Amino acid sequence: MWQVLNFSQSTTSLFSNMKKSANSATRPHAIQFLIFFFVFINYLCSRTEAAAATSTQELLLGFKATPNPSVSSFQSLLNDTTDTFSLGFLRVNSNQLALAVIHLPSSKPLWLANSTQLAPWSDRIELSFNGSLVISGPHSRVFWSTTRAEGQRVVILNTSNLQIQKLDDPLSVVWQSFDFPTDTLVENQNFTSTMSLVSSNGLYSMRLGSNFIGLYAKFNDKSEQIYWRHRALEAKADIVEGKGPIYVRVNSDGFLGTYQVGNNVPVDVEAFNNFQRNSSGLLTLRLEQDGNLKGHYWDGTNWVLNYQAISDACQLPSPCGSYSLCKQSGCSCLDNRTDYSSSGECFASTSGDFCSEDKSRFRVLRRKGVELPFKELIRYEMTSYLEQCEDLCQHNCSCWGALYNNASGSGFCYMLDYPIQTLLGAGDVSKLGYFKLREDAGKRKLNTGIAAGIGILGGALLILIGVILFGGYKIWTSRRANRILEAEDGVSPGPYKNLGSASFRSIEMCNAPR
């Protein structure tokens, strides 16, 4: 209102000045009109730019948007009231699109709508709001949509929670992103037993059990292996059977709290580094691509690490890749023949089992002084001797390997029902490993090495042939030049020596003036 009054006053003043100027007849009327016109256009442009700079804070029914081809990273569509969080189109792998909520100060994605089915970055892709949010493409293809929400507006709260709301009295939430996390939890977001966090590469997930938090690896298409489990200590409150499932929440006081539904007293507290310290920055918990669960807080400039579930890198599910060995000194390969440092892997990763006829053939790799990470979570049998342990795995087409530990006569035989990943180097040579290796796996690695060797040898031969040809050409051109020079001096040997003077005389006669 104040701006309108200011414009009205400035316009009145301008007319008054123009009137005085016209009365005095000091300048033509056309110039006065042009001055007023440019002032008016400048005012409109400034108001338009100010309006464009103001972020959108709600999406209403009928909203539509398409990705801008000139945007290189993130195209904002909707912000919270503090301009800390934004919903928009996020470029992925340079030519794909995800609908994302990001933390604006750091550009860090906190939530992705369509992480499992990315759309192409194209102006033919459209985000629309018709009561539900929908990402669609040509021929009515739907890449992602919320459930039939029948909402009336979309907003982002200052917690980063994206909500579809009905404008009832009181206001009702018909859908929210906090109920569908991807790989990240933010502070005060509840994570329940019906949800899962999935790492951005799709290999690892976090889920809740009846009384624990579990991290799972998808080493095989047919099964998952738990590799980290944190059981509730129940120090301040007990989990009462039949009273509801547990849920976890990243607490603003710097801890991951586990609660039972209906009870606000935590049954477990997993403290972060900033536990019970005054910290105004946003807290997050993310399942990383290496399978670790890490907590961070925003200090105003950077994300600071303040929690990690697995502190020892060798205890991660597969830090060195397939058929590898992890020690404090670094990674190596189980077969001792493959050089890990040259390629960064031992054998190409694989999946499945040995149950089908075309996959039943394998060779055996044995290794002393090896141990399993997270072995307390691995299935085992009790056997009397090594051969019995190996035999259990050999005749089980779902088994990829077995580790035998007979320390103090224990006879533990750990069975691995997934492709062999990273094992631990152990000083105790009585810890023995038996591993199945698909015949084509070694061949692929060998064939790759042979192909590389042939390529290098072929390149060297080509270079050598080129050098020889170039040298021969230089010698030939040098000799040819010498023959021509000798011919010019009249001492050139050969069948043309008697014709040299006659030839030159003919040329002179032809060129002589008439």
UniProtKB/TrEMBL annotation:
Apple domain location: 355-439
Keyword 4Fe-4S annotated: no
Pfam families: B_lectin, S_locus_glycop
Cited Gene3D superfamilies: 2.90.10.30
Residue stretches spanning the membrane: 450-473
Record bears the keyword Transport: no
Domain of life of the source: Eukaryota
Gene Ontology biological process terms from the UniProt entry: recognition of pollen
Stored InterPro entries: Bulb-type_lectin_dom, Bulb-type_lectin_dom_sf, Pan_app, S_locus_glycoprot_dom
Keyword set, alphabetical order: Disulfide bond, Glycoprotein, Membrane, Signal, Transmembrane, Transmembrane helix
Protein name: Apple domain-containing protein
The organism of origin for this protein: Citrus clementina
